[in-house]
Write a structure and sequence with these properties.
2 domains; 7 helices; about 150 residues; mainly alpha; Arc Repressor Mutant, subunit A
Length: about 150
């Protein structure tokens, strides 16, 4: 993953693609900061976690920009998200996510107050492959119907 990011950084420099270059440099910087904190190189899963966090941050920004009617910033931020998404693993469909949640419910047999237990079980299976906020909402709904 790291090599792909560095290769894309070089290619963006050669192509003078300023938008892509800006996003890749930001990701590279975030990776380097995390590596300084942990004092070791990050694995692919950790890099995906950083990219996922950056996507989430930008989605939150789009919500705020929408409230402020800042179409220019919405467009720019959406382009950044589009670039970041190319580094993410293939996203699961809603049906696939629900199947993982169903499997968790059948294995754990949770009660209404076991939200943390279910999230703890499905998070490693779904992290980076779908929006965990959506997963949380689906689990809450299923638990409320018990």
């Amino acid at each position: 993953m790291r090599e792909k990011i560095l290769e894309d950084l070089k290619n963006a420099m050669k192509a003078q693609d300023k938008e892509k270059l800006e996003v890749i440099r930001m990701v590279k910087g975030a990776i380097q900061m995390k590596e300084l904190d942990t004092k070791r190189p990050l694995n692919d899963e950790e890099v995906i976690g950083i990219i996922s966090h950056e996507i989430k941050t930008r989605k939150d920004s789009i919500v705020e920009f929408t409230k402020g009617k800042r179409e220019d910033l919405i467009d720019k931020t959406q382009k950044q998200i589009d670039i970041l998404v190319t580094y993410m693993p293939e996203q699961l469909s809603l049906e696939e996510v629900k199947k993982v949640i169903e499997d968790a419910f059948s294995k754990l047999n949770p009660s209404k107050s076991d939200m943390g237990k279910v999230m703890g079980f499905v998070t490693p299976l779904l992290k980076g492959k779908t929006d965990l906020k959506e997963v949380s909402n689906i689990i809450k709904e299923k638990l409320s119907n018990l």
